[in-house]
Amino acid sequence: MIQLKGIVISLFALNFLVTYHFVDWMKDPFLDGKRNDYKYSDQWEAYLESIKKGPHIHKVLNDDNYCDSVKEYRDKFPVILNSEGLPIISDRILYSNFPNWYFVKKILGNFTSLILNNHTDSNSHNVFRTRLPLNITFFYHMTTNYHEGKQIDTQFLCKGQRYNHIPGNFYLDGKDYNALDYREYKSYYQNRQNCWEDFLPKTLILSEYEDCKEFMNDLEENVLKNDIKWVYKKARDSNQGRGVKIVTKDIEKNIIDDYIKNGKCQDGFIAQEYMRKPFLVDGRKFDFRVYMVVASMDPLIVLYHDGFLRLTAAKYEAESNESWRHITNIREAKIYLETSNFTESESSKIIESLDMTFSEFSSYLYSSHNYKHDFFSKHFRPHAKKIMLHLIRMNYNRLLKHPRVFEIFGVDFMMDSEMRLWLIEVNTDPGIAEITKDMGKINIKFLKDLIDIEYSLEYSPIIFDSILKRSNFHMVLDGRVKGYKRYQGIINQECI
Ligand SMILES: *[C@@H]1O[C@H](CO)[C@@H](O)[C@H](O)[C@H]1NC(C)=O
Ligand SMILES: *[C@@H]1O[C@H](CO)[C@@H](O)[C@H](O)[C@H]1NC(C)=O
Ligand SMILES: *[C@@H]1O[C@H](CO)[C@@H](O)[C@H](O)[C@H]1NC(C)=O
Ligand SMILES: *[C@@H]1O[C@H](CO)[C@@H](O)[C@H](O)[C@H]1NC(C)=O
Ligand SMILES: *[C@@H]1O[C@H](CO)[C@@H](O)[C@H](O)[C@H]1NC(C)=O
């Protein structure tokens, strides 16, 4: 017996040593670190399947010789770099199907050459089926699945061109995918409590039988209580507050009636536990919008960038059925303003107060809560970055590891009254807007620096670090570095 125990113990010890060694040599079960393998990945197969469905964007003809022609063109007319090592403006030829009136397009227009106004303006009907010009060095598309219509490496996205979407991006964007991934990933930590802290509110995927049943049982049990316990969300395409409902008594009744009628929950929805005690700013609810940029898939480079706070227009009341007291978005704010009797100047004041910069929030914490620490550098960013690392590890093998793709994810966090951060959602289509002047300023610098970063990765990888340094981006994961150091100390070594 004792002997047996001895064996067990030594096996355990050996196992521990092996694991430790393993980690030290950079092996991470979620990031296999293999390079140039994108054509052998599941995501490549899925992407090839998607091409068969045909082009989504009919304005451009697919040309099987496009990348060969681009190469010939570039042999004759190489991209000219400025003294810093970045392409000069006339070689920053950016093709974008964002309509021209979008703020994004206005920013881009200031430091790239947007030459393709006619067939990139989705509002213009005089659009011809043209071929892609050979001088493009950047694709910046509003359509998050633009690649599905074209064959990467032959019909589009040739050497020297970068593209702002990663095939497989929908796995992060989909609330149902995210919830499933999260459960699976969390189980990896089940015997290491010191390495794990929940960051996603309990989420039920209502197209799943068991989850639907749990949801219905919960609604039934609490039918007499007035508390708001759940948020009901469309699982896909519900960015920027679209398709989000607070489960008030009225909504609850609709959901139950629907269930009784159909014998199942509505497909394509999730229910997420509602945070009853949010941290408030002057009595108003808010969330943090920050950016996670996967700047490169090969090598894997993940960056964090500050954003801003977005506030509700009206004060929070936990029991209220008025969604604008719960949901922070401009649409809700407008409904609130329309149903109230504000003067024009009062309304514009409220609109201007819908977001807050990080430094304003720090001042607020100091003046209203006597909070003396540096909230963002000591608390918010370390937690936000750690959550981003987990998100990437959860999804890495589902993203196409192509060397010329990147993606901007808008990541929303809420903070409870104990100052703990919770992930609310990840968006592949973050509205880079100028709802207020401050928001505009942050977004201009963000996008300008990001375009430089992407150009440096394509044309002058050697200057990438100096470009990063003069920006406001923070490194989250640096796949150029071997071993544990690639994580920038964000998670403990034994927690990989
Ligand atoms: C573009 O540049 C002009 C001139 O420098 C500046 O006034 C304007 O605010 C810029 N617009 C954006 C959206 O960056
Ligand atoms: C776009 O098309 C219109 C009508 O064909 C033409 O008048 C205009 O010059 C074009 N604009 C650009 C930027 O090519
Ligand atoms: C890029 O190519 C297009 C189409 O051939 C052409 O109209 C445009 O003038 C070119 N732009 C530059 C800056 O060379
Ligand atoms: C809130 O509930 C009251 C009472 O049931 C109802 O009259 C009102 O229309 C509801 N408001 C909203 C925004 O649903
Ligand atoms: C708004 O003001 C108008 C005119 O002063 C008044 O008739 C109306 O009752 C007010 N509505 C609300 C919701 O206070």
TrEMBL record:
<feature type="domain" description="ATP-grasp">
    <location>
        <begin position="408"/>
        <end position="455"/>
    </location>
</feature>
<dbReference type="GO" id="GO:0015631">
    <property type="term" value="F:tubulin binding"/>
</dbReference>
<keyword id="KW-0547">Nucleotide-binding</keyword>
<dbReference type="InterPro" id="IPR011761">
    <property type="entry name" value="ATP-grasp"/>
</dbReference>
<keyword id="KW-0812">Transmembrane</keyword>
<keyword id="KW-0067">ATP-binding</keyword>
<dbReference type="InterPro" id="IPR004344">
    <property type="entry name" value="TTL/TTLL_fam"/>
</dbReference>
<dbReference type="GO" id="GO:0036064">
    <property type="term" value="C:ciliary basal body"/>
</dbReference>
<feature type="transmembrane region" description="Helical">
    <location>
        <begin position="6"/>
        <end position="26"/>
    </location>
</feature>
<dbReference type="GO" id="GO:0046872">
    <property type="term" value="F:metal ion binding"/>
</dbReference>
<protein>
    <recommendedName>
        <fullName>ATP-grasp domain-containing protein</fullName>
    </recommendedName>
</protein>
<dbReference type="GO" id="GO:0000226">
    <property type="term" value="P:microtubule cytoskeleton organization"/>
</dbReference>
<dbReference type="Pfam" id="PF03133">
    <property type="entry name" value="TTL"/>
</dbReference>
<keyword id="KW-0472">Membrane</keyword>
<keyword id="KW-0436">Ligase</keyword>
<dbReference type="GO" id="GO:0070740">
    <property type="term" value="F:tubulin-glutamic acid ligase activity"/>
</dbReference>
<keyword id="KW-1133">Transmembrane helix</keyword>
<dbReference type="GO" id="GO:0005524">
    <property type="term" value="F:ATP binding"/>
</dbReference>
